[in-house]
Amino acid sequence: MINSVIWTRLLVLSTLVLAALSLPTVLKTEETKKNEQNDFNPELDDFVPADRYLTHDEMITWLQSIARRHPKIAKTFSIGKSEQGRELLVLELSHSIERGERDLLMPMVKLVGNIHGNEVVGRQLLLRTISHLIQKDNVDPRVTRLLNTTDIFFLPSMNPDGFVKAREGDCWSGGPEGGRLNANNIDLNRDFPDQFKPEDKLLRSQNELLQSRASETQAVMKWILDNPFVLSASLHGGAVVASYPYDGSGTSQQQGFYSAAPDDKVFRKLSQDYADRHPLMKRSDTCGVGFKDGITNGAYWYDLKGGMQDFNYVHSNAFEVTLELSCCKYAPAADLPAEWEYNRKPLLNYIASSHRGVRGLVVDKTTKRPIRSAYVHVFGIDKNITTTEKGEYWRLLTPGRYIIQSFAEGFVPSSSRNIEITDIYTEQLNFELEPTVHQKTITRLICD
Ligand SMILES: *[C@@H]1O[C@H](CO)[C@@H](O)[C@H](O)[C@H]1NC(C)=O
Ligand SMILES: *[C@@H]1O[C@H](CO)[C@@H](O)[C@H](O)[C@H]1NC(C)=O
Ligand SMILES: [Zn+2]
Question: Which ligand gives the minimal distance to the CA of 143?
């Protein structure tokens, strides 16, 4: 009894001491930060200013220099150039960079900002996320774990030509002068091939798909098609809501038609997880327009064709959600510190969602070699995930019981396997497929 009282007192005391000690330190750090923000040096600093936007050139310099200073976990590369020749620079973050290649079954996540050049909060937010993750690596165990188990790719600005035209404080401009579009006045989020456009339905090869699209669209399409991304987000502004596939529908209805993707449950969960953690998004009165629970089906909100998120889902394994982050598209810089606070947790949690569901390897039963382009089919969901060249697959799922099967050309389909997905850990389920040699032998015998 006495002991516990003493302990409690000690605890209270030490807490007070700690608080007293840490208070001036906190103030001092804030002060130093403020001073530093006035003379931010993109060549040398790991942080980005909390309350001002970076110019395009500053952003490129900063991304390259922070990657150079942290080569074990960060790397930059270009996926192409804008119409006016600006770099579409990606920064990759992962502990696997030091190990030379992505670990087997490590999920790839991408985050794309500023597809509309005047929607800029997401662009800044991605820069701060990069800065945060790099500075908290080996400091915050959750960050360390996230970087050690996930391969994260940031494209902070997909439309740098639009961005340089856009003006701070301009909340609404939709036209070419406002910076929404690219240099050729193309809306990049209407420029992707679309399953609901009759003329696009016939496109098969990568070349056919890419033909006569904006250079920014082509660069991102190739990036999507050439890499096994599992999860993706596209960051926008002008509303505060998480909007999920499909954006398009086969109807000509402009609003109010719920165009559900086969993975509607997964998309709703990903979106709700974001909105629930965002103090403004989850409210239904933000920006004066109500979204129940802060999420919406894209087409239900308004039908759009040629969007990036539908392209991801229809043409790759990547599940993408559109995150609308601010009522004002080019919000005043003074809003940025609060935007970071609203979005930090939801965004980090979103990245970690790439570990939901089930993953595994599909291999040849006889040789144990990986089978590429094998299918993984979940009963009741009409979207088959395909394997990578290493035989890997990732299947995002919400908690529940599922029946799952794998099949590949030249192999006997696997048996149906029961699996239970929980909220706690990722399941691993491997498949060994038997080649269909019997059939070939028989055919040959008959022919002979
Ligand atoms: C990071 O991942 C590697 C490879 O999976 C593992 O061996 C190592 O223990 C992990 N390190 C930490 C700090 O979790
Ligand atoms: C997925 O695979 C199943 C099982 O073979 C098949 O019936 C279905 O048509 C496939 N779905 C798609 C969208 O390709
Ligand atoms: Zn937008």
Answer: 1
